[in-house]
Write a structure and sequence with these properties.
The protein has 122 residues and is mostly helical. 55% of the residues lie in helices and 10% in strands. It contains six helices and two strands; from the N terminus they run βαβααααα. The protein has a two-stranded antiparallel sheet. The chain is globular, with a radius of gyration of 20 Å.
Length: 122
Amino acid sequence: FNEGVFRVLRFAPSVFLGGRGYGGWRSVLWPCHRSSRILANLQSMEAEHQQAELVEQFLMLGKTARGRAAAELIVHATSHPSLFAFSELLSLPHILELQGTEHSLFLDLLRLFAHGTWADYK
C-alpha cells in the first residue's frame, strides 16, 4: 500500500464492542486525509471508556465503604490522575453519611471536586 495515501490505525476493540473483552489491539488501513480526525475520535472514545471504568470501580468500592473507609475512598478518587468525574460518588448513601461526622471534611472535598470552581477552592 502507499503510505502517503493510507495510514495504519491501531485501536482497542473494546472501544467499538462495549468492553466485551475481545482483547488485543486491531489494525485498520484508513485514508490519510481522514485518519487524523478518526484517530482523534478513537482516542476520545477510549478516554471516555477508561473514565467510565474508573468511575464504576470507585462506585463499587463506595457501596461498602463506611466512615473512615469512605473518607479514604474519597482521597483515592480525588487524587487519581485519570479520574475527572466525581458527582456519581455523591449519589452513594455511605458517602453522604459522612455529613456531620468527623470525616465531613472529605465529603466537602468531594463536593468541591464534583461541583466546585477555582474560586471555591481558594
